[in-house]
Specification:
single chain, alpha/beta, Rossmann fold, Alpha-Beta Plaits, 2 domains, four-stranded antiparallel β-sheet, about 40% helix, binds adenosine-5'-triphosphate, binds magnesium ion
Amino acid sequence: MIVAENLVKEFKVYERRPGLLGSLGTLFSREHRLVRAVSGVSFEIPAGARAAYIGANGAGKSTTVKMLTGIMNPTSGRCLVAGLEPYRERRRNAANIGVVFGQRSQLWWDLPVPDSFRILRRIHEIPAPVYRRNMALYRELLDLDALGSTPVRQLSLGQRMRAEVAASLLHDPAVVFLDEPTVGLDLVLKGAVRELVNRVNAELGTTVMLTSHDIGDITSICDQVLVVNRGEVVHQGTVHELLRAADTRAVVFEHQGWPAPAQAIAMIEDRLPGVTARPVEGGRIRVEYPTRHSSAREVMGFLLEHFDVTDCVAPEPDLETVLRRIYTGRAEPREALL
Ligand SMILES: Nc1ncnc2c1ncn2[C@@H]1O[C@H](COP(=O)(O)OP(=O)(O)OP(=O)(O)O)[C@@H](O)[C@H]1O
Ligand SMILES: [Mg+2]
């Protein structure tokens, strides 16, 4: 449904010289450098998928979404959304897609929300039954009536975002691009937006491409994750696969008798190179081992052989830790997952 092939976007940035004269000089200067915001991105998102497109600030996510929605043309490479090249066929593409940019409004700033909806209904020629069904759903989940006749520019962020998300879905688009749709929302409203997106995906098969820095958005909406780093896709797979790609595993165990925890920790770190251990609550010990150097069998075998283990759990790596490692470049996901 969404295809990107070697997608590249470069921006020309005109160098600014310091001071006021420098700023004026910039107007006439032709000196510039190229910023490569998206650097040869390729991926495919099948129809009906709920894909998270995530990465650190400045990784190139919004720029990618702008190319997929036809707002910008790629410097090179190609993208297809529902079989159309977005930038070349902007109008036809607009009929197929819905867009939310959390950082920027798509609504008519001076009009009350209901007026914006009436205009959208005309623009998209939305049939009456579809309009009624969707408005009923938004009323139920997003409490749209509460927005009344206030112009959009006077709405609170949460009020406006409710309207933005509803507006993007009003015409039953085949694909919806949500670029930080829950930014600044409270817990209740985040939950409502997540529920709406999931309902629309389940009932209408809407393909979802979501960008968010909120782990909760990713885990409660998405069935696959694409991670972009410095303009390149470094991982595509399920959340579970991403977690499995983590290069560190942990075991937390409890033991009785000899040796005391402090000695046990020293012994583990001494005998198993690259493995770290630390005390955690309840007199237990958390052991972390890099999968590159040690295997579960090695670590577990050592613990069982040397300690009278009474309890043992191997917690899943958490998504936040895994992503932090990828964003900071301290861990490369396994290539096999690409
Ligand atoms: N119009 C522009 N002109 C020049 N550089 C730009 C422009 N738009 C984006 N960039 C640069 O491209 C890079 C990627 O920006 P982009 O907005 O796509 O990142 P992002 O992944 O959406 O980040 P965030 O998580 O902060 O929203 C950044 O270095 C940014 O400064
Ligand atoms: Mg962005």
